[in-house]
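Researcher: Re-running this chain for the archive, since the previous output was lost when a drive failed. Same request as before.
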Amino acid sequence: IMTVASYAQTNRLFYQSNGASYGRVTVFPGSHFQIDSFNGGGVIKTFRNSCALIPGSAVPGVQCAFGHFNAQGIHIYSGRGLFFQNGLVYLRWTNENLTASTGGQWRMIDTGWYGFRP
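Model: Regenerated structure tokens:
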């Protein structure tokens, strides 16, 4: 499944909406995707075995579940990511850890999809 993202082995990501720099995506073949934020926003990692091919997509890609961890390594958000062979990435945060420092009380959120380009 990770071969569909071969273009994005390691690429900078920019917001599609305004071109601002977001971070760097790295593909760990056979394992996971990781996005390191340039602005101190922590790291996003997809969960092992959470990726599935996106059926019927014109560009090969996978949809994966991810965890978003702050600079201290605390799991603060989770969501879904779309990773395409052409380097486009879409992220949607769906859960927020309200009490990250004390073990976690989660609530459902929906940020909508954020688009990123290489």
